Automatic annotation (TrEMBL):
PANTHER family: HTH-TYPE TRANSCRIPTIONAL REGULATOR YWGB-RELATED, WINGED HELIX-TURN-HELIX TRANSCRIPTIONAL REGULATOR, RRF2 FAMILY. Coiled coil: none annotated. It holds the Pfam family Rrf2. The lineage of its organism: Bacteria, Pseudomonadati, Pseudomonadota, Alphaproteobacteria, Rhodobacterales. It comes from the Bacteria. InterPro entries: Tscrpt_reg_Rrf2 (IPR000944), WH-like_DNA-bd_sf (IPR036388), WH_DNA-bd_sf (IPR036390). GO terms for cellular component: cytosol. The gene is ywnA. It comes from Pseudooceanicola marinus. This is Putative HTH-type transcriptional regulator YwnA. GO terms for molecular function: DNA-binding transcription factor activity.
Length: 156
């Protein structure tokens, strides 16, 4: 099963919007994350519904942050992109008459539910600003001195 990249992609976009470009069109974002602008609009719509971003149509329009990254948790982004599956493992999808399989499924269900609750609690405690600060630390340590460009979109 392929990984669901919606959350990591949107975190990437939010940090670039905050640190580098301010406003970006769906087409610019699509180019950056190697997808289609329609897919971007669908993902960004969830962020807009949660009042993380705003959008403006027409010439000079695009997407921009509606609040500081310090007010956005990883859980906010996770929920905005549609609650993608957190784990690729789990119990049998169809009920089974086998008592061994029932015991396995019950234990997996309970364990995964507990792990999911803990992970979501961690997501709630981490802000996108903290991730952005980690980027800045890595950038400083890398020794890069060239002004940053967002995948072909010049800084404002």
């Amino acid at each position: 099963m392929a990984r669901d990249l919606r959350m990591s992609r949107m975190l990437h976009v939010l940090i670039h919007m905050d640190r580098h470009v301010g406003r970006a069109t769906s087409e610019q974002i699509a180019q950056m994350i190697s997808t289609n602008a329609v897919v971007v609009r669908r993902m960004m719509a969830g962020l807009r519904e949660r009042e993380i971003v705003t959008s403006e149509k027409g010439h000079g329009g695009g997407w921009q942050l509606a609040c500081p990254l310090a007010r956005i948790s990883l859980r906010d982004v996770y929920e905005a992109v549609g609650h993608p599956p957190l784990f690729n493992i789990g119990p049998q999808a169809d009920p089974s008459s086998c008592l061994v399989e029932q015991a396995v499924d019950a234990r997996l269900d309970a364990t995964l539910a507990e792990a999911e609750a803990r992970l979501l609690a961690q997501f709630s405690a981490i802000t996108v600003e903290e991730v952005a600060q980690d980027f800045e630390r890595r950038f400083a340590e890398s020794g890069h001195s060239v002004p940053f460009q967002w995948h072909g979109v010049p800084d404002e």
